[in-house]
Write a structure and sequence with these properties.
By secondary structure, this protein is of the alpha+beta class. The chain has helices at residues 3-49, 53-87, 92-111, 115-128, 133-138, 243-248, 271-279, 285-289, 352-363, 376-384, 499-503; strands spanning 142-149, 154-163, 166-177, 180-184, 187-194, 201-207, 212-218, 227-230, 233-237, 255-259, 262-265, 292-295, 298-304, 310-315, 321-324, 329-330, 339-340, 371-373, 440-445, 448-452, 468-471, 480-482, 484-487.
């Protein structure tokens, strides 16, 4: 080797070492700042879970600012190593170093839901990860150890896959009796547990790469008629929309949350069920609990007819409809589903306080302890399952998936609620219906009341599972109804009657 060649080689090696050293310093600083960001993010999510949204937003904003700083240092480290590869494209330690930086940057982008940046980073990572060892860590499988209570339930595993905005079940297979330990790629799954003489239980679960999750699923002896069982477990709660969108809808940032087991009604409470309640009440409480509301041109009134029947007068938008018991309600502006059995419409024109009074009354009349309004977290878990889907069935809400503003072409004479159970296409992973569109549902958020699910007069975005609105305790609205939950009991008295039959 000539002197000039030797000097060139020495200079090259020095340059590469310098670049690697610079990249290492940037990487170390990124890791330091990222640790600060993660700590602030954890604190922010704890504040959101404690319903301190104002402080939570401030803290979350600081966590995001630090995350962007960390990403800037990671980007700097990547650019320095990219420059080194321009000088020496085949140098393995440089390529390996760049792959490690890109992996850390991808993990940070994923944590903060920067989807476009994440796709770009992973595309570059695939070109420099010689041998695929770093990408293998990105795709590292998860371990799910699942047991049943009692033991021995037959397990069926299905994977959720998205196609055209819908999440469908694929690759379903029996995996043997519980307990089982399953090794699975990261993703969203549904496990169905079955035992003789017990109702089957659905357990949705979203698995992160390389995690080790243990789940023991209690199986109730009875699920009451008209309800489904949601076992204890974790789910993704909140919104992964950009902050400026998320904050408009008062949603916390997407994060992991848990609920205990509970029962939730398949459908919203109907006018027919509310009538059973009214007829059991003495005056003047009957008059006090009778649905009635007039708000911004929309109104609803349940009235006693001279012949003893009740009649509904409903103005959902621009036109008033009236029908007595035994008569259908006929929407003027609809080409389909124009005729409705109004006794099966979700009850509206009742307040959160009315809803709680109804729940107390029903709890005293049926063998289901703890009947009550759902909590906000229970409602969202029942709507979404375990993953980050926007709607009960996926990421898109078509006009025929639920009763929203586009379902009947935004024609004022066509606006109005539909009978419960009209839209099975948007059934939730647990089998709950009407949790997108139709009417807003009153739920509990600590000491406050909020509304979930959107309504017939609003957009698909308003029907997102993470969207909410506040409701005053005594407020009534034409577009506001309710659904019931109950504390889960593994041991219940068998009950074959419906809620209405039991009340009668």
């Amino acid at each position: 080797m000539g002197l000039y060649a030797l000097r060139a080689k020495v200079a090259l090696e020095a340059s590469l070492r310098d670049r690697q050293g610079q990249a290492a310093r940037s990487l170390a600083e990124a890791r330091r700042i990222e640790a600060e960001s993660d700590a602030e993010r954890t604190r922010a999510l704890e504040l959101f879970d404690a319903d301190d949204h104002d402080t939570g937003e401030t803290t979350y904003g600081e966590a995001r600012r630090l995350a962007l700083q960390a990403d800037a240092h990671l980007h700097e480290a990547a650019q320095v190593l990219e420059g080194a590869l321009l000088v020496e494209p085949s140098r393995p330690e440089v390529r390996q170093g760049l792959a490690e930086v890109l992996l850390q940057r991808a993990e940070l982008a994923e944590r903060w839901h920067r989807r476009e940046l994440l796709a770009t980073i992973l595309e570059r990572l695939a070109t420099v990860d010689d041998g695929g060892a770093v990408l293998a860590r990105w795709h590292a499988p998860a371990s799910l150890a699942i047991a049943s209570e009692p033991a021995g339930a037959a397990l069926t595993l299905c994977e959720y896959r998205e196609a055209e905005g819908r999440l469908g079940l694929h690759a379903c297979r029996a995996v043997g009796p519980a307990p089982q330990t399953l090794t699975l790629p990261p993703g969203s799954y549904r496990v169905t547990l079955e035992l003789p003489a017990r109702p089957s239980v659905v357990y949705p679960v979203a698995l992160r790469r390389a995690e080790r999750l243990e789940a023991s699923v209690p199986m109730p002896e009875v699920v009451p008629e008209g309800f489904v069982y949601v076992p204890p477990g974790r789910f993704l709660y909140g919104s992964n929309e950009p902050d400026e969108v998320r904050q408009v809808f008062a949603a916390p940032p997407l994060h992991e949350a848990r609920t205990d087991g509970f029962f939730i009604a398949v459908h919203e409470v109907t006018f027919g069920e509310w009538l059973t309640y009214l007829r059991s009440l003495p005056e003047p409480e009957r008059s006090h609990r009778t649905p009635s509301s007039s708000h911004f041109g929309a109104s609803v009134q349940l009235r006693r007819e001279p012949d003893g029947r009740y009649g509904l007068q409903l103005t959902p938008a621009s036109r008033t409809y009236a029908a007595a018991e035994g008569e259908p309600l006929l929407y003027a502006g609809r080409a389909r589903r124009a005729q409705q059995d109004w006794l099966r419409l979700p009850v509206t024109g009742v307040s959160p306080l009315d809803a709680e009074a109804y729940a107390r009354w029903l709890a005293a009349r049926i063998p289901l302890p703890g009947v009550r309004l759902c909590t906000e977290r229970e409602w969202e878990r029942a709507a979404r399952g375990a993953d980050a889907r926007r709607y009960p069935h996926g990421q898109e809400l078509a006009p025929e998936d639920a009763n929203i503003d586009l379902t009947y072409g935004r024609v004022p004479e066509a606006f109005g609620p539909d009978e419960v159970g009209t839209y099975p296409a948007s059934r939730s992973p647990f089998g709950v219906e009407d949790m997108a569109g139709n009417v807003w549902e009153i739920v509990r958020a600590g000491e406050e009341f909020v509304l979930r699910g959107g309504g017939f007069y609003q957009t698909a975005q308003a029907a997102s599972a993470w969207n909410s609105d506040h409701a005053a305790a005594g407020s009534r609205d034409t577009r506001m109804g309710l659904r019931l939950c109950a504390d889960a009991r593994v041991h219940l008295v068998p009950w074959a009657g419906s809620r209405r039959e039991a009340a009668d």
